[in-house]
Amino acid sequence: MPGLKLSVQRESFKIAGTFTISRGSRTQSEVVLVELSDGSHVGRGECVPYKRYGETVDGVIGAIEALRNGLMKGLNRTMLQSLAKPGAARNAIDCALWDLEAKRAGKPAWQIAGLPAPRPLTTAYTLSLDTPDAMAAKAAENGARPVLKMKLAGDGDLARVEAVRKAAPKAKVVVDANEGWSAAHYDRFAPELAKLGVAMIEQPLPAGEDEALRGRPRPVPLCADESCHDRSSLERMKGKYDFANIKLDKTGGLTEALALKAAAEAAGFRIMVGCMIGTSLAMAPAFLAAQGAEIVDLDGPLLLAEDRPHAIRYDGSLMHAPDTGLWG
Q: Is 166 among the residues known to form the active site?
């Protein structure tokens, strides 16, 4: 794709209320928008820089800008994989290249990827970390949703889960500790969460300490999130996790996400596809990666107070295919 003009800018989207996990709270989602133009068509991609991975908005913009000359000289998706490391910057460019390729070809991105026509997906809905009573109230408001995902943090988590189970008894519940537990927390909580019918525990221990999971009983299936970035993560995950959580901001785009999904399935991992808190533009390529995933967690726009034009349509928790006016 020779002669591509790059535009990159930061944007801020207000979160509906306050979103809290074990690492802190926020009221805004800071994203980076990339647009690639060939003079006739424009491809777009969005990423969410994440402090946990050493990313800042300025740093991600700088990493994108460093590829400007390459894009002008014909940098394509294949070349991008070796020139940029996995992460938010590569994600925005990779997804913009997919979008541009689809627009140039006059074909949807799923056809270019060689995938079947996408079908609507049921996404989990995330309950922000809070007191048991507050989380139960939020669960009751969303009790008709098929899947609820709870943010946890350590002490007090059993009371939180008990309260949510009582408030939304029909929902499938998965929990996400965001590295907030110790091994002692895990030993104490996991059997009790199994009794409460929790379907999955996401990233209970810090990624650098998750070797402690090897050989421990897994009464509830475990999912690697912060421990799963791209295909190079899979060998380290074996024996510790049952699920791989694929996020495009970790893989560095749809290209590696699809490759990671295939490799993870071949290695025997069950698949979850998740997201950062981004707009529909970030969810659109992830929607393709999430086809056939056992757990889909693409509720970012549902947590925002505002979204982009041509936003993805959600009927409750049922997520429909993105409009080509948005992406792909």
A: no
151 is catalytic: yes
What spatial distance separates the first Cα and last Cα of the chain, rounded to whole Å?
Answer: 17
Q: Which of 103, 247, 250, 261 is catalytic?
A: 247
Walk along the chain (328 residues) in steps of 10 and give the mean pLDDT of each run.
88 95 93 97 97 96 97 95 97 98 97 97 98 98 97 97 97 98 98 98 98 97 98 98 98 98 98 98 98 98 97 98 96
The pTM is what?
Answer: 0.96
Q: Catalytic one among 151, 240, 250, 261? A: 151
Residues 6+ apart with CB under 8 A from 116: 110, 291
CA atoms of 85 and 78, how far apart (whole Å): 13
Q: Which fold has domain 121-319?
A: TIM Barrel (3.20.20)
CATH 3.30.390.10 fits 5-106, yes or no: yes
